[in-house]
Amino acid sequence: xxxxxxxxxxxxxxxxxxxxxxxxxxxxxxxxxxxxxxxxxxxxxxxxxxxxxxxxxxxxxxxxxxxxxxxxxxxxxxxxxxxxxxxxxxxxxxxxxxxxxxxxxxxxxxxxxxxxxxxxxxxxxxxxxxxxxxxxxxxxxxxxxxxxxxxxxxxxxxxxxxxxxxxxxxxxxxxxxxxxxxxxxxxxxxxxxxxxxxxxxxxxxxxxxxxxxxxxxxxxxxxxxxxxxxxxxxxxxxxxxxxxxxxxxxxxxxxxxxxxxx
Amino acid sequence: xxxxxxxxxxxxxxxxxxxxxxxxxxxxxxxxxxxxxxxxxxxxxxxxxxxxxxxxxxxxxxxxxxxxxxxxxxxxxxxxxxxxxxxxxxxxxxxxxxxxxxxxxxxxxxxxxxxxxxxxxxxxxxxxxxxxxxxxxxxxxxxxxxxxxxxxxxxxxxxxxxxxxxxxxxxxxxxxxxxxxxxxxxxxxxxxxxxxxxxxxxxxxxxxxxxxxxxxxxxxxxxxxxxxxxxxxxxxxxxxxxxxxxxxxxxxxxxxxxxxxxxxxxxxxxxxxxxxxxxxxxxxxxxxxxxxxxxxxxxxxxxxxxxxxxxxxxxxxxxxxxxxxxxxxxxxxxxxxxxxxxxxxxxxxxxxxxxxxxxxxxxxxxxxxxxxxxxxxxxxxxxxxxxxxxxxxxxxxxxxxxxxxxxxxxxxxx
Amino acid sequence: xxxxxxxxxxxxxxxxxxxxxxxxxxxxxxxxxxxxxxxxxxxxxxxxxxxxxxxxxxxxxxxxxxxxxxxxxxxxxxxxxxxxxxxxxxxxxxxxxxxxxxxxxxxxxxxxxxxxxxxxxxxxxxxxxxxxxxxxxxxxxxxxxxxxxxxxxxxxxxxxxxxxxxxxxxxxxxxxxxxxxxxxxxxxxxxxxxxxxxxxxxxxxxxxxxxxxxxxxxxxxxxxxxxxxxxxxxxxxx
Lengths: 262, 414, 238
Prior knowledge:
heterotrimer; B: 2 domains; 13-stranded parallel β-sheet; C: alpha/beta; Rossmann fold; six-stranded mixed β-sheet; four-stranded antiparallel β-sheet; 8 helices
């Protein structure tokens, strides 16, 4: 534990010293600030923010996480010659990478909200955005770490990361649309609901859609979704899925990292 | 025409009022010998005024067969005890004002009302309050009546155990003005009504429709506010309706509409605001109507235009921040969109004339997909859908090709 | 005492270490020699735990190290080419490693002077030359006073002065009773430093004995010649 916190501390001081975290934070600050000042309706601004969060956070987290591991190989080699166990090193590196991302996103977005006078009571939508944004940061960093540990080749790993992002952000929804159309004579709502649970981006998107009360647009489908996600089972299941998406890659990453030759 | 008949109506009212000065006044008071309204009516001559003093009156069903004026003083309460119709009016020229009506009985056989007017003319119900009645004011086969400044509220739980606030059947030249109707089945219900004027009413939280309007040609409704009704406002099977300056707000739910139009023709929908409705206007089988200078803001669908609607013109409306501006279920299009403002428009205006140089297609691919397969709405806000929409706007393949606004405005119009 | 027992390692399909067993005796300088790709660095990395063997066991003082990491507290390692986090200064790198090892850095001025690093301490790693980085790396391997010192090509890239200083330091450490493992391509250096030679060809041991033994065994007086001959023998066999 002490080792983990040492590594995290070291990576944090490293990250906050470099400029990318500032750029990332600034991006969210500007995006939120501009949306809130140009959009008279904070609900609409929140919706646009949500779209940014759903696209940018997974993409940046997965690419950045992958690059981070490759760029840290020297550090890893050096650290592994010290009396350090590999699990601590991995966990330390993971949080050393994901915490700055999460902090960058959180600070940029929330400072812009506060400057625009959105208080916590008014901004439950923004709380949802912050929460889901942070969850996506950790999920996609953990996927990135798994990929980078498995592929020793940087180009392959980066390519694979982009493919995973593309699949989860775009292709997956294409498949859902296909299923909806292919099985149009059957009640597909529950099946589609189940399929959506397995994609963290879809899960996040649906949580947003329900949180923003857009579900009325979906008629019967929306009613089913609302009922599911409004129930304690739905809440537990969606949080569980998020946690699983975070834990499973981490566990496999730890396992591969433990076996990997450097 | 309408204005004219309204004028005649006020003149008649005026004459009647002056005639009244020759009439007697009977005062009903719980503490005096004349302590029952029924007794007073039995004593009264035509055109007498019965003044009802403050008090709590349970007299089962009161029937009025002669022209009378019933005036409440300090808001007397007439209670139907959850069983009875309170007042039944079978005579012309009956005026009721200043009375509180409570608990007209729920019945599954009879349409029990706080006040029923049947086959009469020149009646007026003003400044009354209605609480928890099955039906509030029920008018059948009557003419030239005025319903004004009433507050009508019910706590109905289901559509069957709740009646309508103001119910008109087979009437003409009725004016409904400045009433508040809350929590009934339909706020205002019109069937086979001609030349009615519905103005400045506020209809909210009714279980079904804020205004329900069928087979009622030549009516005008303006400056009404319809808020948070179960299914919004429905206008059906009617010609020549004018809907002006109304405010449709927060009719939000899986089966809610700001305004549902079915088989409407030659009508005008002008200067209305549709804000935060699941569907702003739903048009089915509508034709030759003009929809202009309306504001559609933050609706799920601003307009759902079914393919059997033709020759409608959508002119100079503002479409702002709707999830979908327009949805249709066909590739054919027989309606025209011209000079509207769309907040989603991304074109440019090189000649600075305020009109976009690139035409705008208000129908997006996803709205077509969603129309055909409801469950695909689960993909709302998906990046995949955004990409599809972009591709479709470049090469239309499923959206109606001729449904184009060639002169999209760059600025809000209304 | 470091014991390697039947170590096997494959990278993808190529066998790098083939059933390798040998002991490294404490208090001596053991040189691992062999042509390029013979598995020298892999052996070192296996001892360090950077590379996990497919089979076999490694014991240090009779304890298996394969699933352990505490033993590295007693190891100082100087890799073939060192790389450190670029935006740190040397001082910060030393502090970080000290922090990770949980040991206080004893400011060993003697080491700093010997490696001529005193003036460089506040420079960022990215501004350093390859040779300076090597010196930092050497410093790191020695500064925590480990009982085992592993040096992979220690003098490659160093200028003659630094090189000879480092060799002196290595001999000093040996005098203190440290166990030292080194690899080198410079035979004179090995002759000068090593007590014991392990000669590897294609992941197998060709010779395991003292330098003296090797020379008498091949009745030569130049190590370089012996090694060259042995390498040629290998190619003759193929």
